[in-house]
Amino acid sequence: MALQQRLRGRQAHTPGATFAAYTPNGKKLITVGVDNFCRIFSTGSDDEPVTVDDCQENNTAVVAGNDFFIAGSEDGTVSKYSLSDHKLEDIIVRTSLPVRDLALSPDGNWVAVASDELAVKVVNTKDMTQVQYLREQPRAVKHVAFDNSGSRLAVSCTDGNIYMYSLSSEDPDMLKKVDGMIRSLESDAEASSRVLWHPDGRAFATPTAGREIQVMSFSDWERQKTFKTGHSADITSAAWSPNGALLATTSSDLNLCLWDSQTQKLLKKYDDLKATILALAWHPTENILSYTNNDGELFIHTGIVPAEHSTLLQKPLQPAPFFHDPSEGRAGNAVNLTNGTKLDLPERQVRRAGTPDSLDDILGPDGLSDDGMDGFVVDDDGAGYAAAINGHGKRTNGHLGALQSPSGKRRAYGSSATFKPQAHESFQPGSTPWRGNRRYLCLNLAGFVWTVSQESSHHTVTVEFYDREFHRDFHFTDPFMYDKACLNDNGTLFSCQPHDSNPAMIYYRPHETWTTRTDWRTNLPVGESITAIALSSSYIVVTTSTNYVRIYTLFGIPLRVYRTKASPAVTCAAWRNYILTIGNGPVAGDGTCQLLYTIENVARDEIHQSEDIVALTPNSTLSSVFFSDEGDPYIYDSTGVLLTLIHWRTPGQARWVPMLDTALLSRLSSGQKQESYWPVAVSNRKFHCIILKGQDKYPYFPRPILSEFDFQMPLTSARSGKKANGGAKDADAMSDDEDGGPAEGETQSEQSRLEHALLLSSTLHAQLKSNLTHPTASPSTHQLSLLADLEVQINRTLLQLLGHECLAGEDRGMKALEIVGLFKDEDEQGRAKGKMLDLASKVATRYGREVLGAKIREVAERRMAGVGGAEEDE
Amino acid sequence: MALPLPPGLTPPEIAFLCEMELVTVIPRQRLEGLELLGGSLPPLNPPHRTAMPLWLALLLKRQRRANILPPPWLSPHSLAAILEHETDHDDTFSPPPRLPPAPSSNALPFSAPFLSHATADAAPDALPYHWLELGEMLLEAAADDFEDPDNVRKLLRGLREVRMSKLRKRVEDLQAGGGVDMKGVGGMEVSEGRAFVTGVIDNLRRIGASLEQQRRDRDREETADSDDDDMSM
Q1: Fewer beta carbons within 10 angstroms: which end of chain B, N or C?
Q2: pTM (2 decimals)?
Q3: Which residue of A has its CA nearest to B124?
Q4: Which three-class secondary structure state does DSSP give residue A280?
């Protein structure tokens, strides 16, 4: 309180609009006003300020770097002054109309000038011939604001829209026009519509027409939390504290309020102001807020944050107030911080003391080095060319593999310090992370479950079905905040994490019953959280943080509990009696954990595959795992490959077969489309997915339609050249009669189509056959007919291939004979029937290949006479 | 003569024929398989896509039992590209979709229910024969299944006008007794152009015929004169 007593206004300028800015190092505070000088106050000293003369009059904005500051004036001059000798250095740019706002990029190299002209100029502070023009906005601009990286500029236009530009490329391009956030204001109004970038860089806030501060996330342009300021007049200025934990707002109702960012609660209100504050400036490190009003006065308010809240200001960088933090992963995993250090403000942390003459000391901090455009290389697409900086201001070794440590002296610390295996994070198949206030809990071919978080700490869950007639959609208020769900034709399964004193819980709700109430909940032991759940038509599987797999019947009878051998558990899937669990296994050569899966039959208590490897390529992750409608396990990985498991019922025989490589799809072969595929299911031997355009990783609302793709095993890459513009999916429509292309190419493509069909149907045949012939299987007539169909399909394809070879010429006879050997021509007992060989010899005869025909008959005779597998042994 | 209809197919008849085209739907309800005259329909099982004739798709759409997936060439992007092609090339129409290679058997499945020119996997860069009527019908019955129905409507309108004006301009060539390349012209356009083109040709023929008649008359008169001369002789 003693500090507050000492607060007194300093008459910095003659009465009139006055603005202030701190230098990034916090040593100096610069004020500009209506009169023709600027003042430089030193932090922590009550001495008379230094006055810089030879300024313009009626200054409207000021920004400061560590050794210079830039002021803009109503006569259109933007001047740069040196802080070392307090002299005018340069006139950076002149505008024909009054300057309204300036913004300095964090590296101090670029200044954005907003004036009553339509275009915003972004001028290099060191070389004023380098200018970028931003011209998308149709009217004058009131405010400009650089984000923390300096690569994005938010332009608040007087038409009530925010124009967001990306400056990372040579030519600036507009990222987004955000409407409905700010109010349309006159360019000389006292009220503010400035975009306030939150220091964590993922969100920004603006004063709204309702005199509130609205936060919006940058990545998805979703409205996040709101500060209900309760100002009775327009907000004239607002500022985040340097660590983002506090927000200061002020308005022409002569109040100055401090808000807690996380709770949006009022911490302190100062209502003893004499004049409207026009500029708020937080000291970069200390508990000081300086502000200037429209009466020429400057207040340096030390101890602005009351002692009971001042710890807030000491905290490291705080996340922006999202409804749901986007980094809150699919399973709520913590963010991986680089090198294990906490993300911190560069200015606030304890820096490691520099060694004498270290390179950093000589060159100065990175941000303000003299390297012109280099500061503009910003890694906004995650390509990794601008290295992230860890808490100590050093580049991390994130670009190296998990086990690669720099050679040399680090070795001395011993390997245990650097040995950090990367475990695969757990996920729930078919769910998406929070975006804004909603997310999908489950999305499959039966329907979809989504949840909306409401402000008063509950969610509303909606379950919708594709088949509207068969099931009715329902929705309910959810006080438990379920974060995982499974949906099938029988019922819906939900689970929630433990919170407060409540343990984790699972909740099953059947769709139709003949009793009045059959939904049930069951609690897990205290402290156990759920990593994944799965629902089949007869069992419920839950994997937990304590590495237990818990299996329940559909009506809640706990059937089995066991600890997984592969831990921590990643995910699980279930189909009828079969359950598939995936966990992190031993660490592979590249430092990541190998994923291991186990498939078991719960009804027979029999393990089909135990701790077998999920075949992923290095540096790829598992995106989804599910059973197809025929009951075969499928996985989809981050490289866009769909794999299935064949022969999985026999222990040790299982192997992963790629069924579709989405990177090789012909729709991508033109190279113009940028899209990814979000896996949903495999059904009817088709891959069902959601096509995501651009950089999106997860589907969002409104629910996009499902697309389906036929299997396409990666044999050849997509057709190139003239065929690529056909764009059609299947090979038939691709061949064109237009240009009458060379018949050679057509035969070639026809042949590769047949070869692919052969491989695909043999794979499916092998999979189905091994499933049906397994001792535990009881094949249905439908399955048997499917198997017979596949067999016919294989033989037909082989005959077509044989026809091609015969047509090609006599000298292809060897290959033709090889094809003959591939026929599936056996009855149930494994004896050759010889029917296909008869057909084959007829084909050969028809094309006049008598030698081949004779050889085929020879093979047929040998087979008929000989022991079953004679030629296989050769 | 009792039939007052003009020769050729009327627009409603063409629209009727167009309803034979297969379109892709996403059913919202189960339906058993149907044995239709045009072929059998597989059982509908949401949300699996199914190709079915347009008339049935429209019926299910009106009953809100299905969503129709517009063919790729009806997307604003493709239509804009085709429109650009039409305006750039003043003398030809944009090419029709490519036909599949002829199958080995002697059947020629080169018409509606056997070719999928309007399903979700049709070529995105070519207008099929029934493009205008199909587009209009889908926009009328299933506008909510389009991403940007107003834009599609506008582009269809633009395409129609460009192509009709081309068709009319072509008629000038007919005078010389030459033919007109009708490749890529749609069914409805043929029907609309028919009245005009046949009218023009008919008039040309009539003019030609009257000229012929005059010449013949003159010839006859000349011979008659000579006959008279003979007689007089």
Answers
A1: N
A2: 0.71
A3: A727
A4: strand
